[in-house]
Every structure is written in structure tokens, then in C-alpha cells.
Prior knowledge:
The complex is a heterodimer of chains A (363) and B (314). By secondary structure, chain A is mostly helical.
Amino acid sequence: MKRIPIQGVLLVLLLIFAFAFPRIMQGQPYWLYVALQSFFWAMMAASWALLAGYAGQFSFAHIAFMGIASYTSGILGRDLGWSPISGIILGTLMAGLVGVLVGYLCLRLRRTYLALFTIAFSEIVRLIINAEHEFTGGPMGLYMEPLLETTSYVPTYYIMLVALIVSLAIMYAIANSRLGLFLRSIREDEEAAAAMGVHVVRYKILAFVITSMIAGIAGALDHHIIGFIAPNELMIPRMSLVIAMAVIGGTESLISASLGAIFIHFAMEWLQKIPVPASWMPSLRENTATLQQFGLSLGEGYLQTNAWRMVLFGLMLMLTLRFWRNGLIQPLLEKIGRQGVAEETVAKRKFSQEENEIEGTEA
Amino acid sequence: MDYITGQFLVNLLMNGILIGLIYGLMALGLTLIFSVLGIVSFAHGEFYMIGGYVVYYLLQAFGNLEPMIAILIAGAVTFVIGVIFELLFLQPMGKGDIERPGEYAILLTFGLAFFLQHVMIGIVGPFPTKVDRFYDFAEIDWGWLRMKAATVWFFDMPISSSRLIATGVAVVLTALMIWFMSKTWTGRGLQAVSQDRQAASVVGINPSHMNTLAFGLGTMLAGMSGAALVTVFAWVPWVGMPASSKSFIIIVLGGMGSMPGALLGGLVLGIVESFGAGLYPDPSKALAYKDAFGLLVFALVLLVKPTGFFGRKL
């Protein structure tokens, strides 16, 4: 008996929901905008998950690749009058090119050394963008040509959604191909992988190139939609946010990482202004000074959390790492996928199935 | 380029040495953590930032508090935070509860940095605070040495007095730390654990206690160097990020886990930064590039000789 693949059904439902979202949210462009921003983060988190979770390269330069592609596209548009489309394409190629360079330089570096080197690289990129103000606009930022003429977020929403789906599909195909297997073998044991005939140098660099190009296209698209980029967006806390999203979602599954990013981005927007019941308002209003001392501010019927929502995600990141190594969303998806059947049963079934297949080929 | 005189160069060198000694103290903490626990704490700069804020709040609350006591309290606070974090999150690593501990430690301390930074933004807000210099100098005029409340002229080269005080504090603390590590039982225990965990436990040292102690001491040194420097720089909750990257540069330069390496690396970084910023042809960009010089040296060292000056073999 073949079971209905419930994960597939869920995925289709999710896709239908994503495509219908602009209709559901008609008249609320703000949430549409939040959604398209969340797709940018989803692309960042998923590509970082491919690089870190699959290939084991804990790089902190991801946000720098995003910045390189965006700035390339923005500067080409400003100085040479390139259209956003050709700018985005060249920006993505540029990110890939720098990805080759960084991947090549990082070949010998592992773990802590890789993390340190990529942080240094990321900071150098940011400092150069900051300092060369004649060229990049410096700390004041760079205005980028809008992607589309319209002010409606509906078309841009669909562009980002399609970009997310396409990049996820490409990465999923890579992760489940021989290449994905090679990447995971490099993560587990580089020497053993090399001894088994995996071309470590080539695949490590390839992992850097592919993921940095996806980060690049996500950034270039998104910043053409926003119409602005500043060097502050390349700062390390933004990288931490990408990591928090991927880890809370689950670094060893691309879908989980991107769902984690979407979830966190929405939660972040929602937590900005927590609605407060009307009955609490008077007592809160009396303590406005105390609240302000702790970085909270009181609005009409809501409480502004300012920096504290980030504190929550930092704490969530640490707790997830400590207690749920596979993230919060991935185990949930797996549980749904098993349909209430115990984990061991699934493993046994899969095992016997595989044994049957092997016997089949022998006979 | 006519402003480059011999005196200008000596002044750059002196400023580099003064700041380099403080960098050295900060990096000493990081290198201690690495040598005992085998991890790099990416939240090192955040402890530096917290140390500075503790002094700021103490001096604001008790106006006539002796600044040196405030620095000690800042050290105690960061020590306690470091110990609590180590016990909660890093102890399980030693017990083998965590798969891939190396990656766990990187991401975890990265998360801690993010967490602490935003806690401080929540509490103090994003606006810079400034602490007045700890002491006013007496007015002296001996020709080669002139002093005023805020500035000292040493052979007509001006040095800010708050920077001089911070360096003095750093030198005293570094000396104490060297004494502690080489002369006391506990300090030698730490060294023993960093050299060989198993052999150390055979002779009666508890490596997991030493882990906690090393992490606490490391964060304490970061906190105290922040406390000493709070009068020199404007303090914002993200002041720890450049401090973190400077500590990374120093410990890689000096060799990860080497204490003399950290001190030497601090001096080298201070001098490189000072000369880089002072001699960069375009003065309008020199300050913006000040941090980039160190990072460039860092990237090169990582690529060419990752063991640094005194590092052990990888």
C-alpha cells in the first residue's frame, strides 16, 4: 500500500497559499511588503544552510556577497545607465566571481579559522564600501533604480516568490544529487572524502560559488525593490540574523531553513508592536518612565519592543543550538512526514525496502 | 607630504604602543579562552562593551566612587556573566553531549554576541555615552614633560591623559595576569590544562573547572579593558564589534593560545593601525580605513602562516 506523501500535499498547499497571498492581503500592502522581504531572508538563509549545513563551511561572508552583487548592480545603473535586469545579472556573476576567490583562499582553513577569515573578509568589504564614498555613496548609501515602475507590491511580490522557488529548486536538486553527497562527505571528513575520490578543492569552491550567487541575486533583486542600499546592511548583526533564521529553521534542510526565515521575519514585524488589552493600558501608562528606561515605548493600544525582539531571537538561537540541534521546524516537518508512525518503524521499513531493492538488482 | 617629520613618526609610534598595550590585555583574555577551551569566543567584544557600561553606570550612580574600584567591579560582573554562560552552554561540550562541538561553539558564541548586544541596546538605547576622564593631571612644566588636566606633552608630543591612564591600568592588569598565570597554583593549573588535559587530570586538576575559570577570566579581562577604555572612546552598544575583530587579529597574529603572542600582537596591531591611519595618502579616508589595515594583515597571516608568531602546530 502506498501512503499519501503528506509532505508533498503540505508543500502544494503552502505554494497555493503563497500564490494567493496578495489576494488574501488585499488592501494591506504593508504585510505584502513584509512577505516579499521575508523571501529575501529565506533565500539568504537557505543558501547559507546549503553552504554550512550541507558542505560544512561555516562562512560568515554571506552578507558580503549579497552586498557585492547589490552594489555592483546599483553602481552600474547609476554610472552607466544599465537597466536593473542586466545589473542584477552582472551583480550575481560578480558575487560568483568573488565567491571563487574566497572559496579558493579558504581551501586550507577550517572551522574557527574559516569563520575568522570570512568575518575579516566581510568587514573589509564593508569598510571599503564605507570609505570609497565617491564611488559607492559611502555611509549615506546608494540609491538604486526601482525594479518596476509601479508602486504596487503585487508584481514585486511575485518576482521574489518565483526567485525563491527557483533558487530553492536548484539548491534542492544540488543537495540531492551526487554533488550534494560529495558536499556532505566533505563536511563529515575531508581527508576520507578525498581518499574516496571526491575532488575536494573543486566541490568546496563550487559550494561557495553557488551559494554566493544565490545570496547575490537575492540581494540585488531585493535592493532594487527597496531602491536603496547602505553599508550598514553589511554589518555582522545582519549575518547573525541569517544564521539565527537558518539554525532555528534547521540547517540541514533547505525548506526548513527558508521556512524559519519567513517565520522569523514575520514574527519580527509582528513583535515590533505588541497589541495590549485596553484594560492594561492605564496601569502601563502610569509606568511609562520605567518602561522607557528599559527600552520599551508605549503607543496607543500597543507596546513597542524596539531592540528586545532581537534579544528574543538571540536567545532562541542559543537555546536551539543547545537543545534542538536540528532546528525547530525540521523535526516538526519530519514528524508530519512520518504521520504519527514512530521513528524506528520508519527506519526499519526504509531498511527492508532498501534490502529488497538490492536483492532485486542482484536477481 | 611635508607634515611627515621625524617627530610625527615618533608620535605615531607612541600612540600605537599606548593603544597596543590595551589591545594586548583584551586579546590576552581571548587567547586564554582558546588555549584552555580550544574555542574562539565571538562574543569577546561584547564583554568589553559591557565592562565599559558597568563603569559608566557605577560612576553615574555613585558620583564620587573611586574609578579603579569601578573597573574592578566591571571585571567582577563580566567574570560572573562569563562563568554563567560557560556553565550553561559550554560545559555540555566537554561531556560529549554535543555533536560537532567546534561548529557549535562558533555559532553559540556568535549568538551570545548578538544577544548581549541587543540586551544592551534595549537597556541603554542606541545613543553614544561618554565618561569623563578618571583623573585630572596636575599642572607641571619641566620643559620635556608638560602636563595639563587633559593632555600631557612628552617632548612636545601631545598624548591625551585618559589614554595614558587606560594604558597604565592595562599594564598593571597585564602584569598581574602574568604573575597569576606563572606563580599561582591555579594559574599553572590553567597552563597545564591547556598543554595536556589528560595529564593535568592525572595530577589532580579538574579540567572542566579550569574551563569555567578560563572562560570567566577571559571575559573578565575583556570587561576590564573595556572599563579602562570607556573614557577614551564614545561608548555605544556595538562598540564591541571592532573590539572583537581586533582581538581576533591579535591572537591570530601572535599565534592562537600563546600569551606572549597576544601581547606582542597587540603592540603590532596598535602600531600598524596608527601608522596606517597616519600615513595613508588621502587623509579624508584614513580614519575610515583604520580598521581595514589590521584586517588586511589578519587575512594575510591567516592565509600565509595561520600559526602566527608563537602558535602551536595546527
